[in-house]
Amino acid sequence: MGFANFLQWLSGTPFSTMMRESIWAEPIVETIHVLTLTIFLGFAVLLDLRLLGVTLIRKRVSEVLAQFNLWLFGGFAVMIVTGILLFCGDPVSFYNTEPPFFKIKMIMLVLAGLNVLIFNLTIGRKVWDRKPRTPGAAKAAGVVSIVLWIWIVAAGRAIAYALPPP
To answer: How far apart are CA 70 and CA 84, in angstroms?
Structure first.
């Protein structure tokens, strides 16, 4: 089964039909998606700004991470689940948007995940946060994160304008 066939199959499932045709399902899931994006993004930007030495400078990055991790992981998890639910509502249309905003958003999400992974496997494991200056690599990770999340939000918002009206 090819990917296009999988999307067609998914579009025909009862869940996909319910998401598409229900007066309440899509708006409720969309609202939860946007609210958890807001929570996640607020904490992510605060963390990135800490990496840049702009805010929370009296706190070590390890302290900030310890305080924010539950909100970051929880918000991200709910955001991903609700995003998948929204995608299931009309997978063919989402995947085939022109311009390809959905594909851009997915690529940027993967890059954001790689940025976090690389940070945690390299500079994030070092105990540099006791020093007054944040290393350039940590600052670069913060800038990359902010730029990627701007693209993710913009592409996600643009999907709504690229999809055909219901």
So the answer is: 21
Residue 24: phi, psi to the nearest 5? Answer: -110, -30
Q: Which domain holds residue 128?
A: 3-162
Main-chain dihedrals φ then ψ at residue 58, nearest 5 degrees? -80, -10
d(C-alpha 143, C-alpha 39), whole Å: 19
Report cis status (omega within 30 of 0) of the bond before 135.
no
Say what angle helices 14-21 and 25-51 make with each other, to 10 degrees. 90
Q: What distance in Å separates the CA atoms of residue 59 and residue 34, rounded to the nearest whole number?
A: 29
Distance CA 19, CA 89 (A): 5
Q: pLDDT tens digits for 65-105?
A: 889 999 999 999 999 999 999 999 999 989 988 899 999 99
Place of tokens 């296009």: 4
First to last CA, the chain: 28
Number of folded domains in the chain? 1
- Asked whether 20 and 85 are in contact (CB, 8 A), the reply is no
